[in-house]
Amino acid sequence: MNFDQPDKCAQLKAADANPDVLKFLSQRRSALVRAMSEPGPNAEELELILRLAARVPDHRKLFPWRFLLFQGDARAAFGEHLTRLFQQDCPDMPQDRIEHERTRFERAPLVVGVVSSPKDCPRGTPVWEQELSAGAVCMNMLLAARASGFAAQWLTEWYAFDGRINDILGLSSTERMAGFIYIGTATEDPTERPRPDASNLTQYWRE
Length: 207
Known about the structure:
The chain is an alpha+beta fold. Helix content is 35%, strand content 15%. Strands 1, 2, 3, 4 and 5 form a five-stranded antiparallel sheet that branches.
């Protein structure tokens, strides 16, 4: 099966009924990062996951997001920053809690940081729309990783909202983390979780 990037002038289908995809979506479930191990995606698999993640609604084609990859020694190096800042803020925490912060990114062989990076748009595309597009990237990445045979979980946690971490990661003043996607090989299958009844969340608007 060919997953090459379609030619920019290619005619694509507006609709394509696919029961296999519907079944796949009906069983979507995030894996827990504590149940991941090596290996992660190889270079070719990672390229595909990132490319599919980026196929999201994006008003006026602004590409208002980018990726930060944490692999190998970079995971432990980032953990040292987490440890230092955590100890500054919580100096009385026990050693096992500090070690938890130090090894956060070592729980999976690959962590992809998705940066929400809104662009100035002369035609007025709202920042909120651009941030929603970054969220769609995170969701697409979960689906692409699972369809590639990997476990994945989208997490934020405290370091996604810390300005000091943003500086360490080189984010601009207008950027922020949409989340961190942990990707690896599942060591156990997740169980189903309670799901909402969509009918209870649905209204038909009438004047």
